Protein backbone atom coordinates (compact mmCIF):
# COMPACT_ATOMS: atom_id res chain seq x y z
CA UNK A 1 0.00 0.00 0.00
CA UNK A 2 1.91 3.06 -1.13
CA UNK A 3 1.27 6.03 1.08
CA UNK A 4 2.58 9.54 0.81
CA UNK A 5 5.90 10.26 2.53
CA UNK A 6 4.26 12.61 5.02
CA UNK A 7 1.91 9.91 6.22
CA UNK A 8 4.79 7.48 6.60
CA UNK A 9 6.48 9.92 8.93
CA UNK A 10 3.32 10.47 10.92
CA UNK A 11 2.73 6.70 11.03
CA UNK A 12 -0.94 7.39 10.62
CA UNK A 13 -3.10 4.39 11.42
CA UNK A 14 -5.75 5.30 8.84
CA UNK A 15 -4.94 3.84 5.45
CA UNK A 16 -5.63 5.72 2.25
CA UNK A 17 -8.39 4.37 0.06
CA UNK A 18 -7.51 6.65 -2.80
CA UNK A 19 -4.18 8.22 -3.50
CA UNK A 20 -3.40 10.64 -6.33
CA UNK A 21 0.23 11.10 -7.19
CA UNK A 22 1.38 14.00 -9.30
CA UNK A 23 -1.64 13.94 -11.60
CA UNK A 24 -1.59 15.99 -14.77
CA UNK A 25 -4.72 16.33 -16.92
CA UNK A 26 -4.86 17.84 -20.38
CA UNK A 27 -8.02 18.68 -22.32
CA UNK A 28 -8.04 18.73 -26.13
CA UNK A 29 -4.32 17.95 -26.04
CA UNK A 30 -3.46 21.57 -25.18
CA UNK A 31 -5.33 22.82 -22.13
CA UNK A 32 -3.49 21.88 -18.96
CA UNK A 33 -6.06 21.69 -16.17
CA UNK A 34 -4.48 19.70 -13.36
CA UNK A 35 -0.83 20.53 -12.89
CA UNK A 36 0.88 17.88 -10.83
CA UNK A 37 -1.70 17.33 -8.15
CA UNK A 38 -1.30 14.95 -5.24
CA UNK A 39 -3.78 14.08 -2.53
CA UNK A 40 -4.98 11.22 -0.36
CA UNK A 41 -8.45 10.17 0.65
CA UNK A 42 -8.30 8.23 3.94
CA UNK A 43 -10.57 5.22 4.24
CA UNK A 44 -13.83 5.70 6.09
CA UNK A 45 -13.57 9.48 6.25
CA UNK A 46 -15.17 12.44 4.51
CA UNK A 47 -12.60 14.48 2.63
CA UNK A 48 -13.64 17.89 1.39
CA UNK A 49 -12.14 19.45 -1.71
CA UNK A 50 -12.60 23.20 -1.86
CA UNK A 51 -11.76 25.67 -4.55
CA UNK A 52 -13.08 28.41 -6.77
CA UNK A 53 -14.85 27.84 -10.08
CA UNK A 54 -12.47 26.55 -12.71
CA UNK A 55 -9.90 25.32 -10.21
CA UNK A 56 -10.23 21.82 -11.65
CA UNK A 57 -12.22 20.09 -8.91
CA UNK A 58 -14.69 18.37 -11.22
CA UNK A 59 -11.86 17.44 -13.56
CA UNK A 60 -10.11 15.74 -10.68
CA UNK A 61 -13.20 13.66 -9.91
CA UNK A 62 -13.62 12.71 -13.55
CA UNK A 63 -9.96 11.72 -13.74
CA UNK A 64 -10.58 9.29 -10.89
CA UNK A 65 -13.82 7.89 -12.30
CA UNK A 66 -12.46 7.60 -15.83
CA UNK A 67 -14.97 9.95 -17.41
CA UNK A 68 -12.42 12.29 -18.99
CA UNK A 69 -12.23 10.70 -22.47
CA UNK A 70 -15.90 11.61 -23.07
CA UNK A 71 -14.88 15.26 -22.81
CA UNK A 72 -11.69 14.75 -24.78
CA UNK A 73 -9.56 14.96 -21.66
CA UNK A 74 -6.70 12.71 -20.68
CA UNK A 75 -4.51 11.94 -17.68
CA UNK A 76 -1.08 12.57 -19.16
CA UNK A 77 1.10 12.06 -16.13
CA UNK A 78 0.99 10.66 -12.61
CA UNK A 79 -0.96 7.78 -11.17
CA UNK A 80 -4.21 7.20 -9.35
CA UNK A 81 -4.01 4.43 -6.79
CA UNK A 82 -7.16 2.85 -5.38
CA UNK A 83 -6.69 0.25 -2.66
CA UNK A 84 -3.08 0.11 -3.76
CA UNK A 85 -3.88 -0.72 -7.38
CA UNK A 86 -3.21 1.65 -10.23
CA UNK A 87 -6.51 2.62 -11.83
CA UNK A 88 -5.24 5.44 -14.04
CA UNK A 89 -6.91 5.43 -17.48
CA UNK A 90 -9.04 2.38 -16.70
CA UNK A 91 -12.46 2.02 -18.32
CA UNK A 92 -15.21 3.71 -16.27
CA UNK A 93 -17.14 0.42 -16.15
CA UNK A 94 -14.15 -1.28 -14.43
CA UNK A 95 -13.75 1.61 -12.03
CA UNK A 96 -17.42 1.58 -11.02
CA UNK A 97 -17.30 -2.18 -10.61
CA UNK A 98 -14.29 -1.82 -8.29
CA UNK A 99 -16.36 0.37 -5.95
CA UNK A 100 -15.86 4.01 -6.95
CA UNK A 101 -19.07 5.82 -7.84
CA UNK A 102 -19.36 9.42 -8.93
CA UNK A 103 -22.44 11.50 -8.20
CA UNK A 104 -22.07 14.01 -10.98
CA UNK A 105 -22.57 17.73 -10.79
CA UNK A 106 -26.12 18.83 -11.50
CA UNK A 107 -27.74 15.53 -10.46
CA UNK A 108 -27.84 14.06 -13.97
CA UNK A 109 -30.62 11.59 -13.20
CA UNK A 110 -32.38 9.98 -16.16
CA UNK A 111 -35.38 12.25 -16.48
CA UNK A 112 -37.57 10.03 -18.62
CA UNK A 113 -37.35 7.09 -16.26
CA UNK A 114 -39.14 6.50 -12.98
CA UNK A 115 -37.46 6.73 -9.59
CA UNK A 116 -37.26 2.94 -9.27
CA UNK A 117 -35.82 2.56 -12.79
CA UNK A 118 -33.16 5.13 -11.95
CA UNK A 119 -32.30 3.24 -8.80
CA UNK A 120 -32.15 -0.08 -10.64
CA UNK A 121 -29.75 1.50 -13.11
CA UNK A 122 -27.53 2.45 -10.18
CA UNK A 123 -27.16 -1.25 -9.46
CA UNK A 124 -26.03 -1.96 -13.03
CA UNK A 125 -22.44 -2.62 -11.99
CA UNK A 126 -23.56 -5.08 -9.30
CA UNK A 127 -25.69 -7.65 -11.13
CA UNK A 128 -25.58 -10.03 -8.18
CA UNK A 129 -26.64 -7.50 -5.55
CA UNK A 130 -30.04 -7.69 -3.92
CA UNK A 131 -31.75 -4.89 -5.78
CA UNK A 132 -35.06 -4.83 -3.90
CA UNK A 133 -33.30 -4.80 -0.54
CA UNK A 134 -31.03 -1.98 -1.64
CA UNK A 135 -33.97 0.03 -2.98
CA UNK A 136 -35.61 -0.32 0.42
CA UNK A 137 -32.44 0.93 2.08
CA UNK A 138 -32.37 3.97 -0.20
CA UNK A 139 -36.00 4.68 0.70
CA UNK A 140 -35.07 4.52 4.39
CA UNK A 141 -32.56 7.30 3.87
CA UNK A 142 -34.83 9.25 1.52
CA UNK A 143 -38.42 8.47 2.53
CA UNK A 144 -39.78 11.15 0.20
CA UNK A 145 -38.67 9.15 -2.86
CA UNK A 146 -40.93 6.25 -1.92
CA UNK A 147 -44.00 8.35 -2.69
CA UNK A 148 -42.74 9.54 -6.07
CA UNK A 149 -44.04 7.15 -8.68
CA UNK A 150 -43.92 9.40 -11.76
CA UNK A 151 -41.00 10.25 -14.00
CA UNK A 152 -37.85 11.42 -12.26
CA UNK A 153 -37.83 14.57 -14.42
CA UNK A 154 -40.79 15.88 -12.45
CA UNK A 155 -39.05 15.64 -9.08
CA UNK A 156 -37.99 18.83 -7.33
CA UNK A 157 -34.31 19.77 -7.34
CA UNK A 158 -33.79 18.45 -3.83
CA UNK A 159 -35.52 15.19 -4.59
CA UNK A 160 -33.44 14.79 -7.73
CA UNK A 161 -30.27 15.25 -5.68
CA UNK A 162 -31.52 12.63 -3.21
CA UNK A 163 -32.25 10.29 -6.10
CA UNK A 164 -28.75 10.86 -7.48
CA UNK A 165 -27.24 9.95 -4.11
CA UNK A 166 -29.62 7.01 -3.75
CA UNK A 167 -28.57 5.79 -7.17
CA UNK A 168 -24.98 5.81 -5.95
CA UNK A 169 -25.92 3.71 -2.92
CA UNK A 170 -27.40 1.07 -5.21
CA UNK A 171 -23.91 0.32 -6.51
CA UNK A 172 -22.75 -0.52 -2.97
CA UNK A 173 -19.69 1.69 -3.41
CA UNK A 174 -16.66 1.92 -1.14
CA UNK A 175 -15.90 5.45 -2.29
CA UNK A 176 -18.42 8.06 -3.44
CA UNK A 177 -17.14 11.06 -5.37
CA UNK A 178 -19.67 13.79 -4.78
CA UNK A 179 -19.65 16.81 -7.02
CA UNK A 180 -21.41 19.81 -5.51
CA UNK A 181 -24.43 18.20 -3.89
CA UNK A 182 -25.59 21.63 -2.69
CA UNK A 183 -25.94 23.06 -6.20
CA UNK A 184 -29.23 24.87 -6.69
CA UNK A 185 -30.74 23.78 -3.37
CA UNK A 186 -32.35 25.93 -0.69
CA UNK A 187 -30.36 26.31 2.59
CA UNK A 188 -32.76 23.98 4.44
CA UNK A 189 -32.39 21.29 1.78
CA UNK A 190 -28.62 21.72 1.78
CA UNK A 191 -28.63 21.01 5.51
CA UNK A 192 -30.78 17.95 4.99
CA UNK A 193 -28.70 16.55 2.15
CA UNK A 194 -25.46 17.06 4.05
CA UNK A 195 -26.76 15.45 7.22
CA UNK A 196 -27.70 12.44 5.11
CA UNK A 197 -24.23 12.38 3.55
CA UNK A 198 -22.78 12.39 7.06
CA UNK A 199 -25.08 9.53 8.06
CA UNK A 200 -24.06 7.49 5.01
CA UNK A 201 -20.45 7.89 6.03
CA UNK A 202 -21.09 6.97 9.69
CA UNK A 203 -23.64 4.21 9.23
CA UNK A 204 -22.50 2.52 6.05
CA UNK A 205 -18.80 3.30 6.34
CA UNK A 206 -18.66 4.76 2.83
CA UNK A 207 -15.63 6.92 2.17
CA UNK A 208 -16.62 10.22 0.61
CA UNK A 209 -14.67 12.71 -1.44
CA UNK A 210 -16.77 15.84 -1.42
CA UNK A 211 -16.30 18.67 -3.86
CA UNK A 212 -18.08 21.80 -2.68
CA UNK A 213 -18.40 25.50 -3.23
CA UNK A 214 -20.15 25.87 0.10
CA UNK A 215 -17.02 25.55 2.23
CA UNK A 216 -18.79 26.17 5.53
CA UNK A 217 -21.07 23.19 5.35
CA UNK A 218 -18.49 20.97 3.66
CA UNK A 219 -15.97 21.52 6.47
CA UNK A 220 -18.68 21.00 9.08
CA UNK A 221 -19.09 17.35 8.12
CA UNK A 222 -15.61 16.62 6.72
CA UNK A 223 -12.68 15.10 8.59
CA UNK A 224 -10.03 16.53 6.29
CA UNK A 225 -9.94 19.13 3.60
CA UNK A 226 -7.91 20.21 0.60
CA UNK A 227 -7.93 23.60 -1.05
CA UNK A 228 -7.36 23.69 -4.77
CA UNK A 229 -6.36 26.58 -6.96
CA UNK A 230 -5.52 26.55 -10.65
CA UNK A 231 -5.01 22.84 -10.88
CA UNK A 232 -2.93 22.36 -7.75
CA UNK A 233 -3.46 21.64 -4.09
CA UNK A 234 -2.40 24.75 -2.22
CA UNK A 235 -3.43 23.88 1.30
CA UNK A 236 -4.50 20.80 3.20
CA UNK A 237 -5.24 19.85 6.77
CA UNK A 238 -7.92 18.62 9.10
CA UNK A 239 -11.30 20.29 8.78
CA UNK A 240 -10.63 22.11 12.05
CA UNK A 241 -7.29 23.47 10.84
CA UNK A 242 -8.85 24.72 7.62
CA UNK A 243 -11.75 26.37 9.40
CA UNK A 244 -9.27 28.32 11.53
CA UNK A 245 -6.93 29.20 8.68
CA UNK A 246 -7.08 32.95 8.01
CA UNK A 247 -6.84 32.64 4.23
CA UNK A 248 -9.56 30.01 4.03
CA UNK A 249 -11.73 32.22 6.21
CA UNK A 250 -11.18 35.16 3.90
CA UNK A 251 -11.61 33.33 0.60
CA UNK A 252 -14.10 30.58 1.26
CA UNK A 253 -15.88 31.05 4.55
CA UNK A 254 -16.75 34.71 4.12
CA UNK A 255 -15.40 35.62 7.55
CA UNK A 256 -12.68 38.00 6.40
CA UNK A 257 -12.55 41.65 7.21
CA UNK A 258 -14.79 43.78 5.02
CA UNK A 259 -12.91 46.26 2.89
CA UNK A 260 -13.67 48.41 -0.11
CA UNK A 261 -13.81 46.84 -3.54
CA UNK A 262 -10.52 48.40 -4.59
CA UNK A 263 -8.73 47.06 -1.53
CA UNK A 264 -10.36 43.70 -1.94
CA UNK A 265 -8.98 43.30 -5.44
CA UNK A 266 -5.41 44.12 -4.56
CA UNK A 267 -5.72 42.07 -1.40
CA UNK A 268 -6.80 39.09 -3.41
CA UNK A 269 -3.97 39.45 -5.83
CA UNK A 270 -1.39 39.83 -3.10
CA UNK A 271 -2.68 36.94 -1.07
CA UNK A 272 -3.00 34.44 -3.88
CA UNK A 273 -1.17 31.25 -3.19
CA UNK A 274 0.04 30.87 -6.73
CA UNK B 1 -66.59 -2.73 -49.33
CA UNK B 2 -65.16 -6.17 -49.01
CA UNK B 3 -62.05 -5.07 -50.86
CA UNK B 4 -61.76 -2.12 -48.53
CA UNK B 5 -61.73 -4.28 -45.41
CA UNK B 6 -59.42 -6.75 -47.07
CA UNK B 7 -56.94 -4.01 -47.86
CA UNK B 8 -57.33 -2.61 -44.37
CA UNK B 9 -56.33 -5.93 -42.87
CA UNK B 10 -53.46 -6.25 -45.33
CA UNK B 11 -52.37 -2.80 -44.28
CA UNK B 12 -52.36 -3.70 -40.59
CA UNK B 13 -50.38 -6.87 -41.24
CA UNK B 14 -47.80 -5.24 -43.48
CA UNK B 15 -47.81 -2.23 -41.16
CA UNK B 16 -46.89 -4.38 -38.19
CA UNK B 17 -43.84 -5.55 -40.11
CA UNK B 18 -42.96 -1.97 -41.01
CA UNK B 19 -43.39 -1.19 -37.33
CA UNK B 20 -40.96 -3.91 -36.31
CA UNK B 21 -38.30 -2.75 -38.76
CA UNK B 22 -38.93 0.89 -37.79
CA UNK B 23 -38.36 -0.12 -34.16
CA UNK B 24 -34.90 -1.39 -35.11
CA UNK B 25 -34.22 1.81 -36.98
CA UNK B 26 -35.26 3.90 -33.98
CA UNK B 27 -33.34 1.67 -31.58
CA UNK B 28 -30.09 2.23 -33.45
CA UNK B 29 -30.80 5.93 -33.88
CA UNK B 30 -31.66 6.41 -30.22
CA UNK B 31 -28.77 4.57 -28.69
CA UNK B 32 -26.00 5.31 -31.17
CA UNK B 33 -27.22 8.46 -32.99
CA UNK B 34 -26.68 6.76 -36.33
CA UNK B 35 -29.34 7.03 -39.04
CA UNK B 36 -29.05 3.61 -40.62
CA UNK B 37 -29.85 3.78 -44.31
CA UNK B 38 -28.82 0.15 -44.67
CA UNK B 39 -31.76 -1.06 -42.55
CA UNK B 40 -33.52 -2.59 -45.55
CA UNK B 41 -30.37 -4.49 -46.51
CA UNK B 42 -30.38 -6.12 -43.08
CA UNK B 43 -33.68 -7.71 -44.07
CA UNK B 44 -32.12 -8.86 -47.27
CA UNK B 45 -29.10 -10.38 -45.58
CA UNK B 46 -31.35 -12.22 -43.13
CA UNK B 47 -33.70 -13.49 -45.80
CA UNK B 48 -30.96 -14.66 -48.18
CA UNK B 49 -29.02 -16.33 -45.38
CA UNK B 50 -32.04 -18.26 -44.21
CA UNK B 51 -33.08 -19.15 -47.74
CA UNK B 52 -29.66 -20.48 -48.68
CA UNK B 53 -29.45 -22.47 -45.45
CA UNK B 54 -32.79 -24.07 -46.28
CA UNK B 55 -32.12 -24.73 -49.96
CA UNK B 56 -28.35 -25.32 -50.36
CA UNK B 57 -27.68 -26.92 -47.00
CA UNK B 58 -31.20 -28.33 -46.72
CA UNK B 59 -31.51 -27.65 -43.03
CA UNK B 60 -34.92 -28.04 -41.43
CA UNK B 61 -36.69 -24.71 -41.06
CA UNK B 62 -36.29 -24.29 -37.30
CA UNK B 63 -32.56 -25.00 -37.45
CA UNK B 64 -32.02 -22.72 -40.43
CA UNK B 65 -33.98 -20.02 -38.62
CA UNK B 66 -31.89 -20.32 -35.45
CA UNK B 67 -28.62 -20.35 -37.40
CA UNK B 68 -29.78 -17.22 -39.21
CA UNK B 69 -30.47 -15.52 -35.89
CA UNK B 70 -27.01 -16.41 -34.66
CA UNK B 71 -25.47 -15.24 -37.91
CA UNK B 72 -27.33 -11.92 -37.78
CA UNK B 73 -26.16 -11.34 -34.20
CA UNK B 74 -22.56 -11.79 -35.24
CA UNK B 75 -23.19 -9.75 -38.38
CA UNK B 76 -24.56 -6.81 -36.36
CA UNK B 77 -21.76 -6.86 -33.81
CA UNK B 78 -19.02 -7.12 -36.44
CA UNK B 79 -20.56 -4.36 -38.52
CA UNK B 80 -20.62 -2.10 -35.50
CA UNK B 81 -17.13 -3.01 -34.34
CA UNK B 82 -15.40 -2.84 -37.73
CA UNK B 83 -17.26 -0.17 -39.67
CA UNK B 84 -19.07 2.08 -37.22
CA UNK B 85 -16.97 2.14 -34.07
CA UNK B 86 -14.08 4.01 -35.73
CA UNK B 87 -16.63 6.64 -36.80
CA UNK B 88 -17.72 7.53 -33.26
CA UNK B 89 -17.27 11.26 -32.89
CA UNK B 90 -17.27 11.93 -36.63
CA UNK B 91 -19.90 14.26 -38.08
CA UNK B 92 -23.42 12.99 -38.71
CA UNK B 93 -23.11 13.38 -42.46
CA UNK B 94 -20.06 11.15 -42.75
CA UNK B 95 -21.73 8.42 -40.71
CA UNK B 96 -24.86 8.71 -42.87
CA UNK B 97 -22.74 8.45 -46.01
CA UNK B 98 -21.14 5.30 -44.63
CA UNK B 99 -24.53 3.67 -44.05
CA UNK B 100 -25.64 4.65 -47.55
CA UNK B 101 -22.42 3.09 -48.81
CA UNK B 102 -23.12 -0.05 -46.81
CA UNK B 103 -26.57 -0.26 -48.37
CA UNK B 104 -25.12 -0.09 -51.87
CA UNK B 105 -22.38 -2.54 -50.96
CA UNK B 106 -24.77 -5.15 -49.58
CA UNK B 107 -27.16 -4.72 -52.50
CA UNK B 108 -24.36 -5.33 -54.96
CA UNK B 109 -22.75 -8.16 -53.03
CA UNK B 110 -26.03 -10.03 -52.57
CA UNK B 111 -26.89 -9.46 -56.20
CA UNK B 112 -23.56 -11.00 -57.15
CA UNK B 113 -24.01 -14.02 -54.93
CA UNK B 114 -27.70 -14.78 -55.36
CA UNK B 115 -28.54 -13.14 -58.66
CA UNK B 116 -31.26 -10.65 -59.33
CA UNK B 117 -34.17 -13.09 -59.71
CA UNK B 118 -36.71 -13.55 -56.98
CA UNK B 119 -36.58 -16.94 -55.29
CA UNK B 120 -39.41 -18.41 -53.28
CA UNK B 121 -38.98 -19.89 -49.84
CA UNK B 122 -39.57 -23.64 -49.60
CA UNK B 123 -43.07 -24.36 -48.38
CA UNK B 124 -42.87 -24.26 -44.59
CA UNK B 125 -46.39 -23.46 -43.59
CA UNK B 126 -49.34 -24.62 -45.63
CA UNK B 127 -50.41 -22.06 -48.19
CA UNK B 128 -54.15 -21.82 -47.92
CA UNK B 129 -56.69 -19.10 -47.61
CA UNK B 130 -58.85 -18.79 -44.59
CA UNK B 131 -62.33 -17.41 -44.65
CA UNK B 132 -63.07 -15.12 -41.78
CA UNK B 133 -66.40 -13.27 -41.94
CA UNK B 134 -66.45 -13.77 -45.66
CA UNK B 135 -62.95 -12.35 -46.13
CA UNK B 136 -60.19 -14.30 -47.78
CA UNK B 137 -56.99 -14.08 -45.82
CA UNK B 138 -53.91 -16.08 -46.63
CA UNK B 139 -52.69 -17.99 -43.60
CA UNK B 140 -49.13 -17.00 -44.42
CA UNK B 141 -50.18 -13.40 -44.09
CA UNK B 142 -51.88 -14.08 -40.82
CA UNK B 143 -48.83 -15.98 -39.60
CA UNK B 144 -46.63 -13.04 -40.38
CA UNK B 145 -48.29 -10.93 -37.73
CA UNK B 146 -47.34 -13.40 -35.00
CA UNK B 147 -43.58 -12.75 -35.03
CA UNK B 148 -44.27 -9.00 -35.16
CA UNK B 149 -46.34 -9.15 -32.02
CA UNK B 150 -43.86 -11.41 -30.25
CA UNK B 151 -41.03 -9.03 -31.14
CA UNK B 152 -42.97 -6.00 -29.93
CA UNK B 153 -43.77 -7.62 -26.59
CA UNK B 154 -40.15 -8.74 -26.26
CA UNK B 155 -38.98 -5.18 -26.91
CA UNK B 156 -41.34 -3.85 -24.27
CA UNK B 157 -40.22 -6.31 -21.62
CA UNK B 158 -36.57 -5.85 -22.54
CA UNK B 159 -36.64 -2.07 -22.15
CA UNK B 160 -38.89 -2.04 -19.09
CA UNK B 161 -37.49 -4.90 -17.08
CA UNK B 162 -34.04 -6.05 -18.09
CA UNK B 163 -30.81 -4.62 -16.80
CA UNK B 164 -29.36 -4.16 -20.28
CA UNK B 165 -32.57 -2.63 -21.57
CA UNK B 166 -32.39 0.04 -18.89
CA UNK B 167 -28.72 0.51 -19.70
CA UNK B 168 -29.58 1.12 -23.35
CA UNK B 169 -32.18 3.69 -22.41
CA UNK B 170 -29.68 5.40 -20.12
CA UNK B 171 -27.10 5.47 -22.91
CA UNK B 172 -29.66 6.97 -25.26
CA UNK B 173 -30.41 9.63 -22.67
CA UNK B 174 -26.84 10.66 -21.87
CA UNK B 175 -23.68 8.73 -22.64
CA UNK B 176 -21.57 10.32 -19.93
CA UNK B 177 -24.16 9.54 -17.26
CA UNK B 178 -24.37 5.97 -18.54
CA UNK B 179 -20.61 5.63 -18.20
CA UNK B 180 -20.69 7.07 -14.70
CA UNK B 181 -23.13 4.30 -13.78
CA UNK B 182 -20.65 1.69 -14.93
CA UNK B 183 -22.31 0.94 -18.25
CA UNK B 184 -19.94 0.09 -21.08
CA UNK B 185 -21.14 2.26 -23.95
CA UNK B 186 -19.24 0.12 -26.44
CA UNK B 187 -21.21 -2.95 -25.41
CA UNK B 188 -24.48 -1.04 -25.60
CA UNK B 189 -23.66 0.09 -29.16
CA UNK B 190 -22.78 -3.43 -30.23
CA UNK B 191 -25.95 -4.74 -28.63
CA UNK B 192 -28.13 -2.15 -30.39
CA UNK B 193 -26.73 -3.15 -33.78
CA UNK B 194 -27.02 -6.83 -32.99
CA UNK B 195 -30.67 -6.51 -31.96
CA UNK B 196 -31.39 -4.39 -35.00
CA UNK B 197 -29.78 -6.94 -37.32
CA UNK B 198 -31.49 -9.94 -35.73
CA UNK B 199 -34.96 -8.43 -35.68
CA UNK B 200 -34.60 -7.08 -39.22
CA UNK B 201 -33.42 -10.52 -40.27
CA UNK B 202 -36.57 -12.08 -38.83
CA UNK B 203 -38.69 -9.50 -40.64
CA UNK B 204 -36.81 -10.33 -43.83
CA UNK B 205 -37.51 -14.03 -43.43
CA UNK B 206 -41.19 -13.40 -42.76
CA UNK B 207 -41.52 -11.14 -45.79
CA UNK B 208 -39.58 -13.60 -47.90
CA UNK B 209 -41.95 -16.39 -46.90
CA UNK B 210 -45.04 -14.35 -47.62
CA UNK B 211 -43.77 -13.05 -50.96
CA UNK B 212 -40.45 -14.15 -52.38
CA UNK B 213 -36.86 -13.21 -51.64
CA UNK B 214 -35.36 -10.70 -54.01
CA UNK B 215 -33.31 -7.55 -53.71
CA UNK B 216 -36.46 -5.45 -53.92
CA UNK B 217 -37.10 -6.57 -50.34
CA UNK B 218 -34.64 -3.88 -49.29
CA UNK B 219 -37.17 -1.31 -50.41
CA UNK B 220 -38.84 -1.76 -47.06
CA UNK B 221 -35.85 0.06 -45.59
CA UNK B 222 -37.01 3.17 -47.41
CA UNK B 223 -40.63 2.68 -46.35
CA UNK B 224 -39.55 2.42 -42.76
CA UNK B 225 -38.22 5.93 -42.92
CA UNK B 226 -41.64 7.63 -43.12
CA UNK B 227 -42.89 5.18 -40.48
CA UNK B 228 -40.17 6.19 -38.02
CA UNK B 229 -40.61 9.89 -38.71
CA UNK B 230 -44.39 9.81 -38.39
CA UNK B 231 -43.98 8.08 -35.05
CA UNK B 232 -41.24 10.40 -33.89
CA UNK B 233 -37.65 9.40 -34.59
CA UNK B 234 -36.79 8.58 -31.00
CA UNK B 235 -39.87 6.72 -29.85
CA UNK B 236 -40.11 2.94 -30.01
CA UNK B 237 -43.87 2.99 -29.49
CA UNK B 238 -44.09 5.69 -32.12
CA UNK B 239 -42.25 3.46 -34.57
CA UNK B 240 -44.85 0.71 -34.19
CA UNK B 241 -47.75 3.09 -34.61
CA UNK B 242 -46.00 4.87 -37.47
CA UNK B 243 -45.49 1.51 -39.14
CA UNK B 244 -49.17 0.61 -38.81
CA UNK B 245 -50.18 4.04 -40.14
CA UNK B 246 -47.93 3.72 -43.17
CA UNK B 247 -49.05 0.14 -43.84
CA UNK B 248 -52.74 1.01 -43.69
CA UNK B 249 -52.23 4.21 -45.64
CA UNK B 250 -50.41 2.42 -48.41
CA UNK B 251 -53.28 -0.01 -48.83
CA UNK B 252 -55.88 2.73 -48.60
CA UNK B 253 -54.02 4.59 -51.33
CA UNK B 254 -54.15 1.46 -53.42
CA UNK B 255 -57.87 1.21 -52.80
CA UNK B 256 -58.57 4.81 -53.73
CA UNK B 257 -56.25 4.58 -56.70
CA UNK B 258 -57.73 1.34 -57.98
CA UNK B 259 -61.37 2.37 -57.51
CA UNK B 260 -61.38 6.02 -58.51
CA UNK B 261 -58.17 7.65 -59.61
CA UNK B 262 -56.37 5.05 -61.74
CA UNK B 263 -52.93 6.70 -61.40
CA UNK B 264 -51.43 3.27 -61.01
CA UNK B 265 -48.71 4.01 -58.51
CA UNK B 266 -50.23 6.02 -55.71
CA UNK B 267 -49.60 3.03 -53.48
CA UNK B 268 -45.83 3.48 -53.59
CA UNK B 269 -45.64 7.22 -53.14
CA UNK B 270 -48.41 7.88 -50.64
CA UNK B 271 -46.19 7.24 -47.59
CA UNK B 272 -43.81 9.92 -48.76
CA UNK B 273 -46.54 12.51 -49.18
CA UNK B 274 -47.52 11.78 -45.61
CA UNK B 275 -43.90 12.08 -44.60
CA UNK B 276 -43.65 15.54 -46.13
CA UNK B 277 -46.91 16.70 -44.57
CA UNK B 278 -45.88 15.34 -41.20
CA UNK B 279 -42.53 17.08 -41.32
CA UNK B 280 -44.35 20.34 -42.01
CA UNK B 281 -47.04 19.99 -39.37
CA UNK B 282 -45.47 17.93 -36.64
CA UNK B 283 -41.72 17.77 -37.15
CA UNK B 284 -41.14 15.70 -34.00
CA UNK B 285 -43.69 13.11 -35.08
CA UNK B 286 -46.49 11.73 -32.96
CA UNK B 287 -44.40 10.53 -30.04
CA UNK B 288 -41.09 12.35 -30.46
CA UNK B 289 -39.69 13.46 -27.12
CA UNK B 290 -40.06 16.89 -25.80
CA UNK B 291 -37.73 17.43 -22.87
CA UNK B 292 -39.36 17.56 -19.47
CA UNK B 293 -39.54 21.13 -18.22
CA UNK B 294 -39.93 21.62 -14.51
CA UNK B 295 -41.89 24.72 -13.63
Descriptive report:
The complex is a heterodimer of chains A (274) and B (295). By secondary structure, chain A is of the alpha/beta class. Chain A has a domain at 41-71 and 173-271: P-loop containing nucleotide triphosphate hydrolases (Rossmann fold), CATH 3.40.50. Chain A contains 12 helices and 10 strands. Chain A has helices at 5-10, 57-65, 92-97, 115-122, 131-141, 143-146, 157-170, 187-204, 215-221, 239-244, 246-253, 261-271; strands spanning 16-27, 31-42, 46-51, 73-82, 85-86, 100-103, 175-179, 207-212, 224-229, 232-238. In chain A, α4 packs parallel to α7 and α5 (131-141) runs antiparallel to α7 (157-170). Chain B is an all-alpha fold and 295 residues long. Chain B has one domain. Chain B has helices at residues 2-32, 39-55, 61-84, 92-114, 139-161, 163-173, 175-180, 185-210, 220-231, 236-261, 266-281; strands at 129-132, 135-138. Chain B has a two-stranded antiparallel ribbon with strand order 1-2. Chain B is globular and about 60 Å long. Chain B starts with a helix and ends in a 14-residue tail after the last helix. The chains are: A alpha/beta (274), B mainly alpha (295). The A-B interface holds A 65-67, 70-71, 91-93, 95-97, 101-102, 104, 108, 110-113, 117, 120-122, 124-125, 127, 151, 153-154, 156-157, 167, 171 and B 163, 166-167, 169-170, 173-177, 179-184, 289, 291-292, 294.
For this entry, give a set of tags.
heterodimer, A: 274 residues, alpha/beta, Rossmann fold, 4-stranded antiparallel sheet, 10 strands, globular, B: 295 residues, mainly alpha, 2 strands
Amino acid sequence: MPASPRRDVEMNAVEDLLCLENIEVVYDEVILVLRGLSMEVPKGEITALLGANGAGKSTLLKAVSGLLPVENGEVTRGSILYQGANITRRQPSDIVASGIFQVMEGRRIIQDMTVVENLRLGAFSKPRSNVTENIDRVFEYFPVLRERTGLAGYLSGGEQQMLAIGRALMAEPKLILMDEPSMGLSPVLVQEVFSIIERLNKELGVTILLVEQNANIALSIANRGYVMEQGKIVLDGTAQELKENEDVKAFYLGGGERTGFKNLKSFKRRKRWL
Amino acid sequence: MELFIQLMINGLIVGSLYGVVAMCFVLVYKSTQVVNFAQGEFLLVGAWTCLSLLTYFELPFWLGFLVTLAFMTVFGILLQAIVLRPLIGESVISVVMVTVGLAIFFQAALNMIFGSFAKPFPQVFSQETLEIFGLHIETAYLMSIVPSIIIMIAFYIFFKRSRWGLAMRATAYDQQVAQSLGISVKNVFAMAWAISAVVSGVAGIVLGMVNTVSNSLAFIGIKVFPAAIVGGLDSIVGAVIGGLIIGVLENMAEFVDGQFLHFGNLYAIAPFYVLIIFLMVKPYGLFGTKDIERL
